[in-house]
Amino acid sequence: NLPKSTVTSTTTSANPGLIDYQKSDFPFSDQIVQNLKKIFHLNTFRLCQEGVINAAMDRRDIVCVMPTGGGKSLTYQLPAVMGNGLTVVISPLLALIWDQVRALKEIGIECVMMTGATSTSEQNEIYERMKAGATRYQKEIRLCYVTPEKVSKSKRLISTLEKVNEAGRLNEAHCCSQLGHDFRPDYKKLSMLKTLFPRVPIQAVTATLSSKTLPDLLKILRLGPITDGSSAKTTGTVFFSAPLFRPNLHYKVLSKPSNAKSAIAAMGDWIQKNHQDQSGIIYCLSKKDAETVAEELREWSGGNIKTGIYHAGVEDYEKERIHVRWREGKVNCICATIAFGLGIDKGDVRYMSKSLEGYYQETGRAGRDGQDSDCVLFYRGQDAARLSSLTYGDVDGSSKLQEMLRFAQDLKTCRKVAFAKYFSASAHLSASAWDAPDALSSSTGTTSTCGICDNCMRSPESIITKDVTVESWKIMKIAQFVQSEGGRVTLANLSDLVRGLGGGLFGVVGGGEGKKGKRRLNGEKERVDLEALGGKITLSKDDTEALLIHLVLLGYLADSYHATAYSVNVYIIASDTAVRLTRLKLQDVEAGRSVKIECTFPVPEPKRTKAKKGKRASDSDEEDEEEDEDHGSVDNDGDT
Ligand code: ADP
User: Fold this and answer.
1) Distance (Å, rounded) from C-alpha 477 to C-alpha 347?
2) Arithmetic mean of pLDDT, 563-572
3) Which atom of ligand 1 is nearest to the CA of 45?
4) Of 1, 267, 355, 379, which is most buried by a Cβ count within 10 Å?
């Protein structure tokens, strides 16, 4: 079933018999350029657009990895309007569907969409039009946008497509995977496309692809083995990738105050200082967060920051209204969950994500016009607990979260290099895919630094790497003690305990027997004898939290999940690896007779004298010591 090339004239001179799809001398090349100008009003191709369009015109199966905002849609829209026939675009994101259908209609292209919200009478009309093709009265539908759910659930859609195919008018199926790894069950059913329509080419476009994803993607869509777009074999799936790093995106991680009010003020401050009246998106962890942040930010700014809310729980008509208000500039700061789709042409703020893929996707929505934009992650160690409970139950959720935390905690590695390392785990997406479009064939495996992210711009004096072996030993000892007593601690509890706060108390789980043979009640408090365990540690609250996460990432500490009917609580436990260190005596550890653990911390900025009035968020961290609100448990109210 591998679609074969029908182009025989254009082969690469260096590799006879192979096709270089990046060239511009195909029989259809002139027509492509004419349509680019006439229909899409664009002058030149970007990145690997031309190569993908050439391969699509050659009716090949294609996998195309291009950054968000890179211009993936043109690679299927342009071939769709050339010649005759219907192209089906399958996208999980309603926002993308709306936006593209609106934009295509504006330039006079016949296109329709079928989603859960399409009425039966509209659907009837669409099916009839699909079957009829071009008639005296109506133009042919060129693109039909559907969700994966629609394809997997609607027998009528499939039988209509079969009829269109029998009439020789089914051109291509395009699958836009936004979160490459989020293969939901409906996505898996897309395998039926190749079975039902073996001769219809499939083009899969995505912005995120890593080692695990490519084979999955090929398997799910039943695509043949990969062949490189610049020297493609005449059979197989043609693979294209464009540099994934966008030099106009400035990545930075900022420390988020632990208290919710101060966090809002910190964000508001940052927005007003850096992007007054500009557009931005704040991605939040849950629907509830998106609503709270929107409201509090509006209040904090006295209405200067015009916020809007966008998540899966917002009704469709309301979503459309927000889109319009956003485009008109009546709303300039959208507080959203990942449900806020693509097709958004600008954005300059962000918040926190559960995986690097997600983070890359979300930030990709910034600066689509090519202008400089900021992608800011407001992070503190405590967020890890919330994220952990949100990823509970996701396949690979915790390993992906660890990568995200590693990124957030990293004060040294260039953000671009960090992305490259993560995504280049794929054999087909080399590290240099972040730099060069022809990375596949000329991979050197290295990535140059971006020079514009926080870590590239950071002065060496602003961070300090400390030997924290002794502190780590104490932390692990305390965690082990709590466990041995049948207790449970969240990250925030543990951070307090090790610093000698909170009276040294921790809660125990009911049922078991304590040391003195006494039966335990649920929630009963026990006390840590800090002196017996080596004494407290003297790091600041922020540094302690950072160290705890560092120890989780090193595998000395681990998350332990406890699901209740309404929430998932995440506790911190000492892992088996901790024993390697804690079986040593404190004196031995102090004398350096153990593995060495190092951690890099930011050097605190010199303290400003406290202003009497109008306290600024950034000053408030010290005062927040006892004000923690988030102790690692969240309502699982859905995160999209
Ligand atoms: P993606 O789907 O990769 O996230 P889009 O296809 O939505 O990105 O394109 C992002 C933006 O880039 C859109 O505003 C689009 O009009 C613009 N664009 C796409 N291709 C070109 C091009 N060749 N020249 C100029 N602008 C382009």
Assistant:
1) 45
2) 79
3) 23
4) 267
Q: What would the mean pLDDT of 293-322 be, rounded to a whole number?
A: 87
- How wide is the angle at C-alpha 212 spanned by C-alphas 210 and 217, nearest 5°? 90
Cα–Cα distance measured from residue 58 to residue 6, given in angstroms and rounded to the nearest whole number = 6
Does any ligand 1 atom lie closer than 6 A to the CB of residue 3? no
Q: Is the CB of 381 inside a 6 Å radius of any atom of ligand 1?
A: no
79 lines ligand 1 (CB under 6 A): no
Of the candidates 158, 137, 133, 26, the residue with the CA atom closest to the CA atom of residue 79: 26
Ligand 1, atom 27, residue with closest C-alpha: 71
Task: Taking residues 432-439, report their average pLDDT.
Answer: 43
Rounded to the nearest angstrom, the distance between the alpha carbon of 229 and the centre of ligand 1 is: 20
Binding site membership of 365 for ligand 1 (Cβ less than 6 Å) = no
**Pair of tokens at residue 581:** 């260190």
H/E element, 403? helix 397-409
Helix (H, G, I), strand (E, B) or coil at 39: coil
The gap from C-alpha 41 to its chain's centroid, in whole angstroms, comes to 31
Residue nearest to atom 6 of ligand 1 (CA): 71
- Asked whether 353 lines ligand 1 (CB < 6 A), one says no
- The Cα–Cα gap between 333 and 282 comes to 7
What would the pLDDT profile of 519-551 be if each residue is shown by its tens digit?
Answer: 666 777 888 888 888 889 999 999 999 999 999
Residue whose CA lies nearest to ligand 1 atom number 2:
72
How far is 542 from 398, CA to CA, in rounded Å? Answer: 23
103-161 pLDDT, tens digit per residue, is: 899 999 999 999 877 889 999 999 999 998 887 778 899 999 998 888 888 899 999 99
| Cα distances (Å, whole numbers) of residue 349 to 31, 334, 376, 377 | 40, 9, 6, 8
Please identify, by atom number, the ligand 1 atom nearest to the C-alpha of residue 345. Answer: 14
Q: How far is CA 356 from the centre of its chain?
A: 5
Q: Would the CB of 76 count as within 6 Å of ligand 1? A: no
Span 553-562, mean pLDDT?
A: 89
Helix, strand, coil percent values for the chain (each to nearest 5): 40, 15, 45
262 in ligand 1 pocket by Cβ < 6 Å? no
Give the number of the atom of ligand 1 that is nearest the alpha carbon of residue 74.
Answer: 6
SS3 (DSSP) at 238: strand
CA-CA-CA-CA torsion sign (115, 121, 127, 133): negative
Average pLDDT over residues 343-350: 46
- Return all residues near 428 (Cβ < 8 A) that are at least 6 apart: 209, 214, 226, 239, 241, 440
| Ligand 1 centroid distance, CA of 70 (Å) | 6
**pLDDT tens by residue, 155-206:** 999 999 999 999 988 987 777 765 444 555 677 788 889 999 999 999 998 8
Name the pairing type of β-strands 226-228 and 170-177.
unpaired
Q: Is 60 exceeded by the pLDDT of residue 470?
A: yes
- The ipTM of this complex is 0.98
Whole-number Å distance between alpha carbons of 171 and 203: 11
pLDDT at 611: 47
